[in-house]
Each structure stands twice: as structure tokens, then as C-alpha cells.
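Appendix B.2, paired examples.
Example (i):
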Amino acid sequence: MAVLSLVRASFATRVGKALCAAAGVAAAAAGGCAWWLGSLLSPPRVIAATTPAGLLLDYEEVSFRSKDGVPLAGWFVGGVPGAPTLVMAHDLGQDRSHLLSIGVPLQKAGYNLFLLDLRGHGRSGGHCSLGVLEKRDVLAALDYLATRPDLDRRRFGFLGVRMGAQAGALAALDRPELRALVLDSPFPDVRTFLGEAVASDERLRRALLPVPLLMYELRFRTSPDRESTAGAVRLLGDRDLLFITSRSDPGAPAVRKMYESVPEGRNTDKNLLELPGSSIGPLYAADKKAYDDKLRTFFADYLPITRPHAATAEQKPRVPAPRA
């Protein structure tokens, strides 16, 4: 009996040590995932070194708050009287200054611009959520702009890059005044974004993704499957949309799939522009001109600048551009 008891005690000790080791490994893995996710959601802050004034544009520095109280910063750059206003949202790790090169040709065409620092970026407070909570930032920007007597409250456009595109697509579901949207290199959902960041190999991605995805859901109390660009655009068949992607981007097939998923609207259009690059990477010469020309054409067709006595947004004349 003594020998049996000794064997049992030894076995229990070994099992206990194994369980403790396994628990330690699991804790270390969870800690590593938490650190990785935190790093991804907290990129180094970029504070604009260039302002619109550096490009000889008059502008206003604007401070306001999101729906959940996060302090936000933006630039308002005026266009011609009575012109629609374009809200612009940047990608992860950027700030509003990254949108100036895109916005200047549109401002020269006469549009008002509102360039926004999304939460966790630039001079805005809060923490990044990869576009899901940033939708509140876009809504807050629209609320602020609606208080300005010099703007048409019924006619807004939007341009967003990747994370900013997701924020704008989600916000548009709540705001019919967002009539025309440009979604540059959007990712379908947070699950896809995190998966691509975790690993390039599909099998490794399936093995590693569940833990950081669960941590994301718990942290932000939301499901990436419920709030996603891919889901939102299928409900935006009543808006005019322009999807932009790079042919060399691994995410290009997903962008094409989102474009194809948008239902045909009776009085609206969907468009797709494929370039060797997009605004998430450098564009030069002919590619930059094609990008800028497409933006001007898209907004001119679907959100034209009209005089105060001209047709309303609902009655506006439209000459749709040829589809890609």
C-alpha cells in the first residue's frame, strides 16, 4: 500500500507539474497575443507636419467630440459657396495630413473638405478599433458640419482609405445625407484585417487568429461579423459608390467581391477603379492623374456643385460616368 501511495503521489506530482507548465504556456501565449493586439491598435502617433496652409489653402482647426465623448480634431477647408462637403478619413497609423494630396484637387474643383483625425490618431484622443468605433467619429463630424449655416446639410460625400473606408461605410448606414462614397482599398471586416496581420500562411492564420479575435471582441464589445464593410455595402444600394483598389494588392479580390455584392440601384451607381497603386501606396505621374481625375469625375457626376437656387440633391441632373 505504501508503494502504491508513493506511485500515486509521484504521478499526481508529474500531472500537476505538466498542468502548471501548460497553464504557464497558455498564459504566456495569451499575454503575447494581448501585447501584439495592443501594439497593432496603438501605432506611433503621427502629428501633422504639413497643414493646408502649407499648400496655400485657408482652413479652420476644429475640435469636437464623438458620440461616446472622445475628443476629436479636424480641418475644415472651404470651397465655393453652396458646394457639397466631403468628409475624409485616413488609414491606420496615419493622420489627416495624409489626405491632403488627395483632397487638394477636389478643393480646387470647388468642394468643401473636412479632414478628420480618427480616434487614437493625430491630435484626437481615444483608442483605435480598426474602423468599428471610428464610425462614431464620422457621425460626429457630420453632426458638427450640420451646425454650420454656410453648408448644405443634405449633401455630403465621403472618402476613406482602408480603416477609414470601413468607418465611413458603417456611418453611411445611419446617415442618408452621405450621398456619394469613395472607398479606397477597404478590407471586408476586422477578422480579415487581423488574419492578414497575424500570418500570411492560411493554415497558420487559422490556428493563431481565434485568440486575438476573441480579445478584440471582448475589448470593444462588438462582433467584426456584425459590423463590417462587406456587410454595410450590401445595404448601400441607394448610394453612389466608388471602390478603388490596386491590382497588385492581395486584398484586391475582396474589394472586387464587395463591389459585385452591391445591389443595382434604380437611381444610383457603383463604380470600380483598379490601379497599379492606390492612396495607401505612392502614386506617380499617369497613375496619380488617373486617380485624381476619377475622384473629380465621380463627385462631379454624383454630387455636383450647384448654385443655391439649382436642383436639390434628390432632383439633381446626373450623367453617370462609364463604369469600370
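Example (ii):
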Amino acid sequence: MPRGSCLCGGIRFECDAVPIMTHCHCSMCRKSHAAAFGTFANVYPHHFRWLGGEELVQRYESSPGNLRSFCRVCGSKVPVYMEGMKLWGVPAGLFDDDPGVRPCLHMMVAWKAPWWELGDALPKFDEWVPGFGPGDER
């Protein structure tokens, strides 16, 4: 059961199962991660639990209905519940343990950083993965 935490250790969580991990290249993920892309584990609600520090979570609405969460002490990105997708988006860098999955695709590559080359063989989607975007029924 992989556990994770923010930089200061104040926010802690665990996941029973991590079914998928993806790279997102949208400009908001790039900016919020200060990196070429954001890597997220997508976890179903019944497989996610806070272990401590939930009161330290701050949220920022980066666009209508799109929340970004961070630790108010250390500033680390932290898990956020994505209401439209009914999933927890867990920034993969927070895992203290191996989540047991590896990134399986790149999405939003139409907005990738112009200085970053996608050199791996993972599938690439210009926008949302069909059937996996906000509001899509699964």
C-alpha cells in the first residue's frame, strides 16, 4: 500500500491501489509543477485516505472548476479530488513508496513546452484521453 507525503511531512496519505499514472503537458500543470509536465497517479476515491495534515491543504482555482491543492506550510503540490472525473489526482512525486505503476501515456501534448522533446514510446494525446476527461462517464 503506497504512502506519500509533502515536502515538510505535514500532509500524509495512502492509496490501496493506483490504477494509472499519466503525464500532463497542459500549461497549468507545467506552471504548477515548475517542470516540463506534471505526472499524476489517478486514484479512485475508495482507494485514497488521508493519514494526517488534511487541515494544511490549501486550494487554488486555476480555472473555473479546476482546483489545484498545495501544502500551506511547504508549498508542495498535494492530492486533489477532481470532481468532474470522480478521481483523486495524486502528484506522483509525493509517493514515499513505489506505487506499483509507471506512466502509461502523455496527454495535452498540443500544449507541451516547446523546449521539451517527447522521446519515449508512450501513447500521446493532443488533448484529453478519449473517455477519460472531465464529465466523461466511465
